[in-house]
Amino acid sequence: MTASFDLKGFLAREALGVQAALERALEALEETLDGDVAGATRHGVLSEGKRLRPILCVAAYRACGGEKEEAVYDLAASLELIHAYSLMHDDLPCMDDADLRRGRPTTHRVHGEDATLRAGAALIPAAALQAWRAADRLGCASSTRRSVVAALLAASGAGGMVGGQWVDLEAEGKGLGPAELDDLHRRKTGALLAAALDMGTLAAGAPRPTREALIRYGRAIGLAFQIADDILDATATAATLGKNPSDNDLNKSTYVALHGLDEARRLAEEQVTEALGAVAEAGVDAPELEALARYVVERTH
Length: 301
Ligand code: GRG
Description:
By secondary structure, the chain is mainly α. It has 14 helices and 2 strands, in the order ααααββαααααααααα.
């Protein structure tokens, strides 16, 4: 089934649904932002990303029988708001000091550091509110609404993305071991990807074993995604990737530096196999999730 799956068409269609939800989210948020900060927010959120996290959330929701199409994009958009803030802040001079993101100058290069810092900070509570309201529109019970927002915030916080970023910054130039590198990326990248599956399955009211299996899928593709990122970082140009500097420039530990290219590719494939196994265990018919698992390691940027 996956062999004939039109991944390109699927990604393009889903990205449009996500984009429309992001526009709706920003219209509401902009009522509370001044001009500079609103401009920085639009730049960081609406620039052309792959929208992988929201697309995973929508795919998980559908795989578990969810049918409320517009509201689930609003829920999924909350993940992209967090992701966008993290990229905007990650690019700031006090972190990676990056010039290029998604093929465009970074937000602070266009709108300034002050507006970028404030826009990113405003996006964090906005994302939580967005998830809460969308779960409400999806008809989730109040305990499910709490779980949905908790999943988003736990994955974004010190035990997840922020904690992983912290370790990443401290590790620059130090050389991490394999277990430390896995831990860093499980938190920095994997936690939010796994939360996408968690939130989609929660919103659809999936039974616990299905939910747990799909969260395992999310963790596996999270690691595969990061290994693929390191492979791309080592093999593709900044123009193809649409971002700079590279991890190599920043003297960061990577899967390629630690294991070499061939072994890094094998490790990524191992995680894809693990992810596909988790979908089978979940007992759902989900060609979209199967195709997305392959996409994370086959993508070119
Ligand atoms: C102050 C310690 C501290 C943290 C603040 C900045 C930050 C929070 C976290 C950074 C997290 C980060 C940059 C994670 C990287 C995730 C990642 C792999 C980004 C690239 O994702 P893609 O390829 O990007 O999905 P697109 O552009 O397609 O959306």
